[in-house]
Amino acid sequence: MKNRKIKKILGILVATIVFIIFAVNTFIFPAAIRKQLRHATIGTMKLKVDRIKTHFLTQSIGLSGVHFGDSAGDFSANINLIKLREIGIVNLILYKKIETDGLIFKDLVIRMRKGYEFPKSGLKASSATSPLKILIKELVVENGTFSLFDPSLKNDSLLSAHLDLDIKNIEFNPDTANFLYKNIGLDELECLVSDVNFLTSDGNYRIKVGSVNFITQTAELVANNLQVIPLRDRYELGKRVGVQSDWFDVQLQRLQLNSIDLKKLLADQEFYLRKIEVAGLKAEVFRDMRLPMPVKPDTKLIPDMVASIPIPVHSDSLYIHTADIRYTERAKNSTDAGHLDLIGTEIISKNFTNIDSLIKQPRVLDIKTKLLNASVLTAQVTLSSKHFPHADRMRGHLGTMPFAAANTMVEYGMSTRFTEGTVHRIDFDFTYNNDVSNGKLTMEYENLKLELIDRNNQSNKKLQSGLVNGLVIRNHNLTGDKRFREGAIHFERDKKKSTYNFWWKSLFSGIKSTVAF
Hints:
The protein is an alpha+beta fold and 517 residues long. The protein has eight helices and 24 strands. The protein has helices spanning 2-38, 89-95, 234-241, 262-268, 302-307, 407-413, 462-472, 499-515; strands spanning 45-55, 60-70, 75-85, 97-100, 102-113, 133-149, 157-171, 179-181, 184-186, 188-199, 205-215, 220-230, 247-258, 271-288, 313-330, 338-349, 352-353, 363-371, 375-383, 393-398, 401-402, 416-432, 436-452, 487-492. The strands form two sheets. The chain has a 22-stranded mixed β-sheet that branches. It has a two-stranded antiparallel ribbon with strand order 8-9. A hairpin with a 7-residue loop joins β15 and β16. The longest helix has 37 residues, at 2-38. It is elongated, with a radius of gyration of 33 Å.
């Protein structure tokens, strides 16, 4: 009899505990959490949750159909599901403190207006007396998307991207964090951004990136399949602005940044890394020279461009591999555009930096390329700096090639066509500053013959061509010949034009002084 009574009491007790757990799990905790969330606002932001599911025993919370945004539609975040694993529910309700083993966002969709500024007011809640404290052992975003829009555009999307994120030990109290930035600390971060689609502010280009992957454990960032896609025809761009403008079409297989010093980057805003690698670059640049030059500041030489980077940057090395570059130009009074190709270009710099204290000797760029897809050109460019102000120098060597290889550029740009002749070698060495270049050029060639072209019908101006071949140019220039001549490089820089234009015009001055009588 006594045993039956004890069993009955135990049964009632177990049933009561089960009922309490069921009631707490089904009604009390969801209602309490919903009350907290219902009153949580940041400025004009409103939070709405369609369904809240709690698990008292596992200390977990699931939020379905979450919407967070403002009434104007300038910012919105919609999440299909938010999971919080092993969360201290009592701490959340009573002390506004979140400690969780995992926070997972599934199907996160963020949409934000261009120029939007987040409200500056803090979190407001009816029972809040202190700032919300958060410690998350792992934060995961699965299948996230982000878009930036401009209501004034017909197609309002300026930027869109797909996001997958995994952060270990993120804390809004950075005292024990390994990497610090303002009030947030974290131990590890792995971020994959893919399908990036960005419209430039002028509407001329769309930039696409296949993927960008960043991992703090390896301190490595890798971007794959980058494209700069022109949205206007090469001639239309110049016509719209009314002045000479560079038109680009760029593809890049891979950009890799190795061994990034994250502590320096986050704490000191200084960008230190071991290596920058650029691989598989294919680019075309076009300029319509028939248009007037734009009114603009003077163009900086390469050392000044590097020095003007807004944050301190240092990479032990910079490598550019297998780059194919075409420069295309439409000259005045020409019937079509000419082009210059640099194929399989390799560029190496062993000390790419704008930090003067790290420049112990002049910096050097080593360049190797197949010029005009005809002959290998090797060059070494020395860059000046604060401690080496007179170091700017370019020297190099070009191997054997037919003169006719240059017709892709000179035929339309200079109304000239090479019909015969071979260049055996060109060696050059010149120094330069912001104003002028000076040096020497040795060019060995033979059997040079050209013809001048009538722009109206592309025919040979036979009389003028004969006079030029007989009286203006030297047919050959070979070592051992009594008439052998070494060319002189001298060119006064047009400061509105690029460094590359300055280099080419300097070399061309040496070629002219060799070839012309």
